[in-house]
Write a structure and sequence with these properties.
single chain; about 190 residues; mainly alpha; two-stranded antiparallel sheet; 3 helices; 2 strands; mitochondrion
Length: about 190
Amino acid sequence: LKNSGSFGACLVQAPRSFHQSSQSLAPVPPLPEKGGKVRHGIFPEEIFTMLYPKTGVTGPYMLGTGLLLYLLSKEIYVINHETIAGASIGAVIIYAVKKFGPSVAAFADKLNADKIAKAQEVKDQSMASYAQGIENEKKEQWRVEGRSMLFDAKRNNVAMLLEINYRERLHMVTNEVKKRLDYQVVLQNLH
């Protein structure tokens, strides 16, 4: 610490940053749609089921009451005006949750359902376009498979055209030779 200098107002500089690692790319399980069961609005049911075999039905309540009395008797927690204000604010919050909670939850569920419907619509559109792309690709592959037959047929057509052209020329030559020979025969018969 000789060379470190003054620390200032409780500021300690770390030699390296502790937040350089990348996030885990492992799949994250989805959040549950509904919360777990609770008692009295804040205490999870698991606490009661954990304490039930050892303490019975009233055990968790006695634990909470004993803990509260211990905090008050040892003056770890002192009741003052802030406690009354906190209790009042808590009562108002509980009243608001009881009164407006279901309507706010229904509104939030409606918003969530709308978002899910939009996401599903986008997903369905993309799936339809992918399915159309797959069908187009299959059709193109079918055309490629038929291309060799098409080229064979075109080759055969060209060969047949060449054969027809050859036969026509051969026939034309034969007719011309026959005409000339007939002409020579006519000339021979005249003499």
